[in-house]
């Protein structure tokens, strides 16, 4: 069975929640073959693409695919161009590993920044968060992951060798380790500290603690432990 229709008539889940039906202006809807409803191929391809994104299941992919085909053609073109540009025009900085259009990145190129301090983070998104703070004026190094024996991630699998090379060639006096307060983040911080400290470079760790407005009652153990460890004297 192949259905077409002249206007949007119905949109919803048929047969419980198993089949999504969508009647669209002169558009091939779905065909029934051996009792299975199939989407037209362009929609299937779009859904497959959306399902490659994190946290997107079949239902959300279908919703996004149908939303996309209802968008203005110009908006869809801009969307597609943005996807291609983000992939094609962006690279990782050869010094710090941050995501950038130019190599080295604008932070590494910025002569006004304090080149004696490097702040080590897991992910490029962490740099954006820290930069929003406007309080830090040193350099960064992005690991692109953390050490994880369970997942088989060792020092060579993340951006650690390039950090060590940097410390040998640049005049760095302090390395601030800002990996997340997870078991892997803590293990990575410990590993880096033991690796860097013998070279006479100061290694510090961000004090992780309770977020503003959070109740101690609801804080997990790692947060509480870090909050106590990172305590400061009240002036
Ligand atoms: Zn850089």
TrEMBL record:
Protein family according to the UniProt entry: Belongs to the RecR family.
The protein, known as: Recombination protein RecR
Zinc finger (C4-type): 93-108
Gene3D superfamilies reported for this sequence: 3.30.60.80, 3.40.1360.10, 6.10.250.240, RecR Domain 1
Function: May play a role in DNA repair. It seems to be involved in an RecBC-independent recombinational process of DNA repair. It may act with RecF and RecO.
Keyword line: DNA damage, DNA recombination, DNA repair, Metal-binding, Zinc, Zinc-finger
Domain Toprim: from-to ranges: 116-211
Gene Ontology biological process: DNA recombination; DNA repair
Annotated signal sequence range: none
Family annotation (Pfam families): RecR_C, RecR_HhH, RecR_ZnF, Toprim_4
GO MF annotations, alphabetized: DNA binding; zinc ion binding
Coiled-coil positions: none
